[in-house]
Amino acid sequence: MLTLQQIKENPQRVVERLAIKGFDGAEAINTIITLDDNRRALQLSNDTKAAELNKMAARIGGLMKEGKKDEAEQVKAEVAALKTEQKETAEKLAAAEEEIRNILLTIPNLPCDAVPEGKTAEDNVVEKTGGNMPDLGEDALPHWDLAKKYNLIDFDLGVKITGAGFPVYIGKGARLQRALIDFFLDEAVKAGYTEIQPPYVVNEASGYGTGQLPDKEGQMYYVNEDNLYLIPTAEVPVTNLYRDVILTDDKLPVKNCAYSACFRREAGSYGKDVRGLNRLHQFDKVEIVRIEKPENSYAALEEMKDHVQGLLDKLGLPWHILRLCGGDMSFTSAITFDFEVFSAAQKRWLEVSSVSNFETYQANRLKCRYRDADKKTRLCHTLNGSALALPRIMAALLENNQTPKGIVVPECLRKYTGFEIID
Q: Looking at the whole model, is its pTM more than 0.90?
């Protein structure tokens, strides 16, 4: 959530930056400024009344000591009237603050200056490329055929049990899935991240804290009876560990990693892009989350990108990094880098990670702060990244590593799988 300070310091710049995301914020920003002027006037009036009530209370005490009971009763009547006025003012103040907050919740984060202009994914910028492209020939099988051939994943069983987008992993497919999870977690721990095992459902406050609500409410599975949401990513529960927390200087940076199942309705998805593992309603992912001082957050972002790149290099997958344009960025992000791997049989790039800096946007919603050397409380910067999401990694590994003898397991995974080839 944007801060009032951000908006009031330079409202025109806020409107211009929001336009990079394709958001017309002029009316909302003007409304917030008007409401805040009214809020400050109400706050001043409320404070004045409170001060006057204190004086009147002291006056009543003095009159009672002097035996001037009638005068004291008159002042008490004035106090009662002033308290009624103060209550009305306080109610108006609370209503103004709530209205400001409700509008702020509908405004996306400002893209930082490094974000390129553009409206769609076609306008994203390829920043870096690595890995070797496999040459499999025209008879290469896509992962859904390989999964069936080697009895690794049963998509039909998933439909039977739950519905489309909920695959069942079997035998070596399940072991490869578990190997990837363990590998990603171990690499994160080596990089200094503390492992967290979070809940898979969160309350409404958590959804608001990280920005899934109200923006992505329709994409989340909702448990109606308990007013809870299935998590779309471990980012939500892990970042919310620091909601309403003031961190001390020596506790920063915070570096957490977490494995979780992730649940997304993916409403409106259809066509070839959803076949097999390309787009699921339930999938596994290892997430990395950081809480940083503002002056360190962009260096942390580069560290996170290097970490994800290192995972892909160890897996031997061809990759590239995209700097997302304003129109393709998430509601909450200040800047996002997507990692994509090349799927040799499908002959297309598949997104496997997003690494983002939210600056103070999530922290303001969360009230996640730190106390600096001068004992002043300041908003933290929050960051997160997929390290990594499993379905498309699995798809690329199966497709890119297929040989006439079977599917070769990357060396870095063999100590986890216990086998070198799927045949």
A: yes
